Structures are given as C-alpha cells and as structure tokens.
Design the sequence.
C-alpha cells in the first residue's frame, strides 16, 4: 500500500509540472490565433542576435558578404519584427560587431566614408534623414534597397527616392 501511494504522489507531481509548463504555451497560441498575429509579427528582435557568432575569447567569427546582407533582408520580406529598429536590422544583416544608437548616428560617425552621389554598391548602407533618428537600409546594387519601413515592413524599393531626404551611402561591412 505504501509503494502505491509513493508512486501516485510522484506521478501527481510530474503531471502537475507538465501541465504547468504546457499551460502558458497553449494560452499564447490561443491569444495569437485570436488576434491573427503571425510568428514574424511577435518576434522580439531586441532579444536575438543570431547573425553574429562569437568565439570563446569574444572575437566575432562571422564575416558577412554584401550578397549575404541582402539575402538576410530578402529572407525576412514582409516581417514587421524590426519596425523602428532599422539600424539593428542592418547590423544583424551584416553581422556587425559595431553598434550605433541610431541610423543618423551611424551616418554621422567615422565608421566608413560618406558618399552623396553615385549608385550605392550592393550591400552598402543607404541613409535618409526622415526623423531625428534617421533611417538606414542595405543597397541592392541596382539603385534600390532593402529596408524596414517599406510599406510598414521589411521590403524592397527600386529607388533610394522611396523615402524623402536621401543622405547617401557608406560601404557595407561586418566591422
């Protein structure tokens, strides 16, 4: 009789633990389904930094290419996860270790030469002065760019004239 009581108690505790851990996931799924929110819409980009990989000594080991930075954006086409985080999006696309507080800070920084004329090469950072924080995207090499804020999400525009107050471009890099 004692043995069955012990087994019953263990099963009860394990079952309660499983139910407790499953309940939040079910509640989240129900809430998301009710309001029609997709996984891309509820991503928390400020918590993920998957485009960079650090070695044990802290050195950044991933170096991105211009094609890879453009692919990062095209793979996320339609996502709203990075709205109002354009500088973070280009940093992740390029797997950069350098952080800037805003796009306008990046433009004004000594981090790369500023160019105000010519077609930005593929992967170049392209900048606009559309708010106190500015805006930045990644050039496609054909006069267009990939960015957040294209129709309210990550998208492609065929001209840097899409946003007003175009500032210019800086070479893209994984610094």
Sequence:
């Amino acid at each position: 009789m004692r043995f069955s009581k012990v087994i019953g108690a263990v099963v009860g505790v394990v079952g309660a633990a499983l139910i407790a851990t499953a309940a939040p996931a079910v509640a989240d799924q129900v809430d998301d389904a009710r309001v029609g929110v997709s996984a891309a819409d509820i991503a928390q980009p400020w918590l993920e930094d998957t485009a960079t990989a650090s070695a044990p000594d802290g050195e950044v080991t991933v170096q991105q290419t211009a094609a890879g930075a453009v692919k990062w954006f095209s793979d996320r086409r339609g996502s709203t996860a990075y709205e109002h985080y354009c500088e973070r999006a280009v940093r992740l696309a390029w797997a950069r270790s350098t952080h800037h507080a805003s796009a306008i800070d990046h433009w004004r920084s000594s981090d790369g030469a500023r160019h105000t004329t010519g077609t930005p090469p593929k992967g170049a950072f392209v900048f606009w002065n559309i708010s106190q924080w500015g805006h930045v995207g990644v050039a496609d090499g054909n006069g267009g760019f990939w960015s957040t804020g294209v129709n309210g999400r990550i998208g492609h525009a065929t001209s840097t004239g899409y946003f007003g107050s175009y500032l210019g471009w800086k070479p893209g890099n994984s610094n």
